[in-house]
From TrEMBL:
This is Carboxymuconolactone decarboxylase family protein. Signal peptide: none annotated. SUPFAM superfamilies: AhpD-like (SSF69118). Coiled coil: none annotated.
């Protein structure tokens, strides 16, 4: 399988990818715990059917020490006992923020309040930004049919 389009082969694509990488780095350097960031990126990627991002974020999370049990249970986080209440709150906001077409109201007040119980304002900014960012990256990769399976942890620095 080959991607329909090579973003790195286009001047505009390179510029866009650099800007996306810069935004991603700002989020990565935020106070939102890295383990939560990894879970959020993995879950949104699963929902959106982005094989490339699912591959990348599961491998990066494993390389950062995330357990295979937790990675394997992200898709079934509601039934799994291996996630904290804070992680569950972030995953709920991620699902609702990713599935906005399924619920015109977007993220419910209940889901937002649960997240706000665990994260301060700066962390919430990072969480919301991360959800928007990963959804954009998922859509980009799904549209161009970016192949999955060959990602190496840390490949993009």
């Amino acid at each position: 399988m080959e991607a329909r389009l090579n973003f790195y082969g286009s001047r505009l694509g390179i510029k866009i990818m650099k800007n996306l990488a810069s935004a991603s780095q700002s989020i990565r350097n935020s106070a939102l715990p890295g383990s939560v960031q990894n879970l959020v990126m993995l879950r949104a990627s699963q929902i959106n059917g982005c094989g490339f991002c699912t591959d990348m974020h599961s491998k990066d999370a494993a390389a950062e020490g995330e357990s295979s049990v937790r990675l394997n249970l992200v898709a079934a986080w509601r039934e799994a006992t291996v996630f904290t209440d804070a992680e569950r709150a972030a995953l709920e906001v991620t699902e609702q923020g990713t599935r906005i077409a399924d619920a015109a109201s977007g993220v419910t007040e209940q889901a937002w309040a649960a997240a706000a119980d665990h994260y301060d304002e700066e962390q919430l900014v990072a969480l919301v930004s991360l959800i928007a960012f990963i959804n954009a990256a998922n859509r980009l990769n799904v549209v161009v049919k970016q192949p999955a399976g060959g990602y190496r942890p840390g490949q993009f620095g």
